[in-house]
Amino acid sequence: MASARPGSNISAPTRFVESHGERYAYRRFGDGTACPLLCLQHFTGTLDNWDPFVTDPLATRGEVILFDNAGVGRSTGKVPETVSGMTKHALNFVDGLGIKKCDLLGFSLGGMIAQQMARDRPSLVRRMILVATAPRGGEDIMHLEKPTLARFLADPKLRGYAVLQKLFFAPTESSQAAGAAFIGRLALREEDRDPISGPEVAKAQMTAFREWERSAGERFADLSAIRQPTLIVNGVRDEMIPVANSYRLGEYLPNAVLLTYPDSGHGSLFQFHESFTRQASAFLESDSLYAPY
Amino acid sequence: MASARPGSNISAPTRFVESHGERYAYRRFGDGTACPLLCLQHFTGTLDNWDPFVTDPLATRGEVILFDNAGVGRSTGKVPETVSGMTKHALNFVDGLGIKKCDLLGFSLGGMIAQQMARDRPSLVRRMILVATAPRGGEDIMHLEKPTLARFLADPKLRGYAVLQKLFFAPTESSQAAGAAFIGRLALREEDRDPISGPEVAKAQMTAFREWERSAGERFADLSAIRQPTLIVNGVRDEMIPVANSYRLGEYLPNAVLLTYPDSGHGSLFQFHESFTRQASAFLESDSLYAPY
Which of A129, A203, B1, B289 has its CA 20 to 30 A from that of A118? Predict the structure, then answer.
């Protein structure tokens, strides 16, 4: 299929693959010889919530693959109520594409799925980037009823992407300006867009967050089984999944580098897209068995 | 003065400069057009405690300047009992060299002096790197009486650099191997070495740590006055100045990126010297007003 900008999430066509009885919507674009990078999306996010200023620079080094998990966007099926259930769909999806080895970029909920993929099928995952996420047993994960978040969700003046700007960016002039620019970039794709997620997607995913907060056995001990080189990224003012969760990932994952950004929240990767894509590319380009890059 | 390797701490001659009634020992080496990088040393450390695998790669981009604070190594004067007092000497030293603008690399105690220099003379400091250090009011700073540290200091089999290997590196095979390599590199310089610091240096510097632990007013609020782009680095298993202090720096400095390394302690910059010098160079090469690089 011809396209003016085949290496961009602004214009890459949405495709579909059947696997294990479901039909998954996805996009794949980019050039280069690097291991493909599978991107795992945040709470209620669809293919259209990936910032082209993040995906497109990463697609210059190898293929970037975005997908809608079951019941999200144009993918069939029911949204699972556990991270483990979402992980099964993600593995079915990569099997559908015939991918045997990939890198992972997991953002927020997607970072939890990435960790579970590395646990459930270690041979699949080469390196992974976990942005604004939490380990199982983490603290204060996506409590939208907190006053710091509820005030935006309850504000009738904030609808659609305007609320995302408030939730993903810090309450400073500089961060909000970066948020406005991010929202603008999400609108650059004009056709072939996903439907916006409804309340049933949010409800099931929120159930999964509550389940992920529960820890069985010694807290964070299960992270020692994840040996893949990992880059952890977060903004120090993340109200949705506070940065303390990233600290715990950096301390308990045996092979992880942590990078935090100032003056930014949940969406630090979008706010500092130039730095993030430079750091992410440098990390992914390493073929060392160790995370430091 | 001719030298086989003028751009290296292995062979750079020790020099002396008089300023404000003291005579400071220092080394300067390297080529390039970048802003000079002033390196501020750790507890009891001298010119010879700087790992050439850290200093020398940084000296390929601009001049690296190492110096002994008052009363340390071959510098005259009395070791101050406050970070503020050490900062005055550091400023006197740069005045003696006629330096109007520089970057700072502050390691441990040196990171506290770097913060104070940025406070006391903001116009001097362009960008700074704070490794394995703590803000004023930080927690658990250099408590050598803790069992995790005291067991090495009390061990008669551990003398000289052997104890440094235990204190600066994590108790894993990989980190201790990196520590042994570090110790080996410190021995590469064979002539023109500093005397090893005695107990009077340790005593005064320890008094300074205790004073630095005390906070006046709202904890960490004074960090908001430091606007210089800052890179914070630490190993997640630092027992001397725990990584939580680096977290607080990343949260309260308004313009700082934090990088943490796995499987490493106080000496993470030496253990991961390739990554550290690559990251430090990329950070220093930026001329942005913002820390992300």
Answer: A203
Note whether A27 and A8 are within 8 A (CB).
no
- Which of B236, B254, B263 is nearest residue A263 as measured by Cβ atoms? B254
User: Which residues does residue A22 pair with via DSSP β-bridges, in sequence order?
Assistant: A19
User: φ, ψ for residue B126 (rounded to 5)?
Assistant: -85, -60
Say yes or no: A19 contacts chain B, CB-CB below 8 A. no
Per-residue pLDDT tens for B29-52?
Answer: 998 889 999 999 999 999 999 999
Q: Is ipTM > 0.90 here?
A: yes
Candidates B128, B174, B220, B236, partner chain A, best to mutate (most A CBs within 10 A): B236
C-alpha count within 13 angstroms, C-beta hemisphere, residue A73 = 25
Q: Residue A1: its pLDDT value, please?
A: 40
**Can you spell out the DSSP letters for A96-137?**
HHT---EEEEEETHHHHHHHHHHHH-GGGEEEEEEES---TT
| Type and span of the H or E element at B130 | strand B125-131
Residue entry with tokens 């550091």 = B90
Taking only the tens place, the pLDDT of each residue in B103-157 is 999 999 999 999 999 999 999 999 999 999 999 999 999 999 999 999 999 999 9
* Consecutive H or E run containing A165: helix A161-168
Note the pLDDT of residue B35.
Answer: 96
Mutate to test the interface with A, among B227, B260, B283 (most CBs of A within 10 A): B260
| Residues of chain B found within 8 Å of residue A286, distances taken between Cβ atoms | none
Size of interface A-B (CB pairs under 8 A): 59
Rounded to 5 degrees, what angle do the CA atoms B110, B114, B119 make?
150
Record the pTM.
0.97
For chain A, which residues score pLDDT lower than 50?
1-5
Which class for A238: exposed (0-12), middle (13-18), buried (19 or more C-beta within 10 A)? buried
For A:204-263, CB contacts with B below 8 A are: 236, 243, 247, 250-251, 253-263
Average pLDDT, 10 consecutive residues per value, chain B (293 residues): 66 97 98 94 98 97 97 98 98 98 98 98 98 98 95 90 95 98 97 97 98 94 97 98 98 98 98 98 97 98
